[in-house]
Amino acid sequence: MDASVWIFSTLDSSIRLAVPLIFAAMGGIFSERSGIVDIGLEGKMLFAAFVAAATSYATGSAWLGMCAGIMGSVALSMVHGYASINMRGDQVISGLAVNFFAAGMTVTLGHAWFSRGGQTPGLIGDQRFLPIELPGAEWLGDTIPFFGPLYREVISGHNILVYLSFAIVGVTWWVLFKTRFGLRLRAVGEEPNAVDTAGISVAWMRYRAIAFTGVFCGLAGAYYSTAQNAAFGKNMTAGQGYIALAAVIFGKWRPKTALFACLLFGFLSALETRMQGVAIPGIGVLPTQVFSALPYVLTVVLLAGFIGKAVAPKAVGQPYIKER
Amino acid sequence: MSAFQESPAWVRVGLVPILQLTLALAVSSLVVLMVGESPIEALKLMVYGATNLEYGGLASTLYYATNFIFTGLAVAVAFHAGLFNIGGEGQAYVAGLGVAIVALTFDSTLNVWLMAPMIIVISALFGAVWGVIPGYLQAKRGSHIVVTTIMFNFIAAAVMGYALVEIIAPMGGNSTDSRYFAATSVFPKLNEIWPDIPSSLLNPTLLIALITAWLVWVLIWRTRLGYAIRVVGQNPKAAEYAGINVARIIIITMAISGALAGMMAINEVYGAQSRLILNFTNGFGFIGIAVALMGRNHPVGVILASILFGALYQGGTELQFDMPSLNPELIMVIQGAVIFFTGALDRLVRDPVEKMFMRKSTEEA
């Protein structure tokens, strides 16, 4: 019984930790599939987290906070787009600039507006997204063995954004692989020349793709400050944007595999706190740092071709120059 | 490209970067306005905070600049080979571990004259190791240097988290920082050499940084290896045709780049703090990117940009005392804007300005 409680609660926190990764990774897939490298996922999430918390605090509505967060994140996406699409600038440098800008802006504005060293005031009541009890969770948990408690402990009891993140994976998959827009978007990331020849604007396709990225990173940010936590804290995304990028690569630029990568990375960070001082039979106590380093190590190993091949969209990172 | 098609050098390396910097400061001024302070007052305070002599402002500016020269050179050297090394942060961090291990082991037996050379070598060595792995993976396994170096920054953080507890803490100090190194074995601060000047963290590492910058200039423009590095950066395919082993050059360049970033630990861990502190790199590795971009990857430019960023850093820190509503993190905004306008949006200013001067020179001709 003790073991199943441990497993259920670990799975539960794995999901909670994976949610922002899922949002950001789906955003990253849209961007990279269209041929735009986005290492600014981190900055967009951070900025959105701040804007969402500040707006939610000011208006008293988590939903308004979320919308504002999305708008902030999309604005940064557009700046990135202007630099990398119109100005044909280096996309990595632009993404870095976004990250710096976000890290500086959030603390500077937060410090000036709330004078709490960059933090926003705590959010209460409707200013947050609160857990939702799915129908019949209590009853099923008490009556059906294993699946009941699984339903009650792991699947039920999350806030709306958690469920939305899983829905978004489906949406991403459907848009990319089942719509004409998705077909063109993937083509823009592989052979922008061909798409241009077919009379479709490469720039317009890419702008729409990174708009999706902005929206999804906005959701991830709102999740951080108004759902998972009850305030914005300085640098609260703490490198998770880079983990999401790792998940995009690890998932080989596909929504479903990226989802599993996010869940795996979420599971690893759940283990990080849970395995402190816990001995594994035959191995002993692993340093907690092993779990925090593992997503990065795995991605490096994957990129080096030791565990399968990660093939990026062909035109990713290259500005498109119209020949005519 | 023939000579008459280029705009004059002072436009390319002087006017354009200055205009870009002005734009970056203008955007940052908007942020200051949003906070409700006067950008002109803020700028005045920052300039004073960074240049005053009586409180050691100028010395602190140069102390910060020392860090940025190393990390800026690291990024610049990699850039010459067409590699974007975002891993300076991790490389410097790991180098700090090497410096601390050596200093903690030998500080009771060695004086500063014997210790300093060892510290220089070990910081470069540890940094090189952390830089060469992504280099090797790019050259031989085709993984992308940008992604790998990002990942290596985080792996370095995990390694350091572990090493601080398991290696450094047993050697003295608590789990997040080491004990102080013995005073006889570390660089004296400048104000200890000349008691007349106000106290700061400035130490002789600045000289090492300047010599290193000169060595980098020699390497890139005066040696066969430097030539190979530049050819690989300009056109890897042509380099291959010319008989240059591109993979080898990539690996060597990343080793040099990592070593340069690692040498930041001389200033920070050995010279200034004289102990290993958690997160001592403090984002300085990333500032190297802005420094290299502003300095156009030339050692002289890197030095000038380093002093500018040192001044921003020192001025930003001073700013908070006189304008409490402004947070020192404002310099992150400025830094982001500088990276944006000198790097990603380079064309925005460069194209029209250079075109203007090109037209002029053809009219004259």
UniProtKB/TrEMBL annotation, chain A:
One of its GO terms (cellular component) is plasma membrane. It is a multi-pass membrane protein. Keywords: Cell membrane, Membrane, Transmembrane, Transmembrane helix. The keyword Cell membrane applies. The keyword Coiled coil does not apply. It comes from the Bacteria. InterPro entries: ABC_transp_permease (IPR001851). Its main location: membrane. GO terms for molecular function: transmembrane transporter activity. It is found in: Cell inner membrane. The chain crosses the membrane at residues 6-27, 63-85, 92-114, 160-177, 209-226, 232-250, 257-273, 293-312. It holds the Pfam family BPD_transp_2. This is Sugar ABC transporter permease. The lineage of its organism: Bacteria, Pseudomonadati, Pseudomonadota, Gammaproteobacteria, Oceanospirillales.
TrEMBL record, chain B:
This is Sugar ABC transporter permease. GO terms for molecular function: transmembrane transporter activity. It is a multi-pass membrane protein. It comes from Pelagibaculum spongiae. GO terms for cellular component: plasma membrane. The chain crosses the membrane at residues 12-36, 62-83, 90-106, 112-133, 145-165, 201-221, 242-264, 276-293, 300-317, 329-349. Keywords: Cell membrane, Membrane, Transmembrane, Transmembrane helix. InterPro entries: ABC_transp_permease (IPR001851). It is found in: Cell inner membrane. Signal peptide: none annotated. The keyword Protein biosynthesis does not apply.
